[in-house]
């Protein structure tokens, strides 16, 4: 049969020549397929976010890049850093449910509007919790606005209660937010943003993460002197 010959299947229908005869190779194939599906799911969410709110989509990409760099500076494994990229790419996915007039409001948010914005980590967690990533993506998305002193949201976690990846993402997120232009304020300089992060090192933000952020930023912004 032409099909059998082209596919490398033996005449008796034995599929051993495909390279998936052992349970280990079949498992490897399954993992590869699942990972491909997950990658497509992630980029589908990124694309959806881009259609809904281009700023948030671009912000997520920058945060993913920065979180990866900080994780690498901290000595995380390549697998962990791949997870940091995925977490960064979807950390604000819950914002797709927020009205545009709130996301892009040129003035200060009311207390009611801010409470609405604060719902996005839980919404993101609900979107992601049933996807079986090899990293704690949903948990990190839920916790990326938690702070060391317990002043964050949505659960008021503090210190080591906050998973390490969420502590990394929190610092990358706040730095990129500050250096980005928003309708309600101009962008801060990298120096100003880093000074703000350093000011709250050990209070809001993990000290080791902040130190690694400083080293990463130093490579790109040589004018910064606050580290």
Architecture overview:
- It contains eleven helices and no strands.
- The chain is mainly alpha-helical.
- The protein has a single domain (16-220), classed as Hypothetical protein af1432.
Poorly predicted spans = 1-21, 223-227
Helix content: 55-70%
The coarse overall form would be globular
| Structural class by helix and strand composition | mainly alpha
How large is the radius of gyration? Answer: 21 Å
CATH class: Mainly Alpha
| Fraction of residues in β-strands | under 5%
Q: What is the ordering of alpha helices and beta strands?
A: HHHHHHHHHHH
- Overall pLDDT: 84
Number of domains: 1
| CATH 4th-level superfamily | Hypothetical protein af1432
Alpha-carbon distance between the two ends: 69 Å
Number of strands: 0
Which fold name corresponds to the CATH topology?
Answer: Hypothetical protein af1432
Largest sheet: none
Secondary structure elements and their pairing?
Elements lengths: L1 H6 L15 H30 L1 H21 L3 H13 L9 H4 L7 H7 L2 H9 L8 H7 L20 H16 L10 H10 L7 H14 L7
Helix pairs in contact: 2-3, 3-4, 3-9, 3-11, 4-8, 7-8, 8-9, 9-10, 10-11
């Amino acid at each position: 049969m032409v099909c059998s010959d082209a596919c490398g299947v033996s005449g008796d229908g034995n599929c051993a020549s495909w390279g998936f005869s052992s349970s280990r190779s079949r498992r490897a194939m399954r993992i590869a397929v699942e990972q491909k599906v997950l990658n497509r799911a992630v980029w589908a969410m990124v694309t959806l976010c881009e259609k809904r709110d281009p700023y948030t989509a671009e912000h997520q990409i920058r945060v993913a890049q920065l979180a990866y760099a900080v994780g690498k500076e901290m000595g995380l494994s390549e697998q962990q850093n791949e997870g940091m990229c995925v977490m960064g790419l979807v950390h604000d996915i819950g914002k797709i449910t927020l009205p545009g007039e709130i996301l892009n409001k040129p003035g200060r948010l009311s207390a009611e509007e801010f409470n609405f914005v604060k719902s996005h980590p839980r919404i993101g967690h609900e979107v992601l919790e049933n996807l079986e990533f090899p990293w704690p993506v949903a948990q990190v998305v839920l916790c990326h606005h938690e702070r060391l002193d317990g002043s964050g949201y949505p659960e008021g976690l503090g210190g080591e209660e906050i998973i390490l990846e969420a502590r990394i993402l929190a610092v990358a997120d706040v730095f990129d937010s500050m250096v980005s232009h928003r309708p309600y304020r101009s962008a801060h300089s990298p120096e100003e943003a880093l000074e703000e992060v350093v000011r709250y090192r050990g209070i809001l933000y993990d000290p080791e993460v902040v130190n690694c952020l400083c080293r990463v930023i130093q490579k790109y912004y040589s004018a910064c002197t606050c580290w």
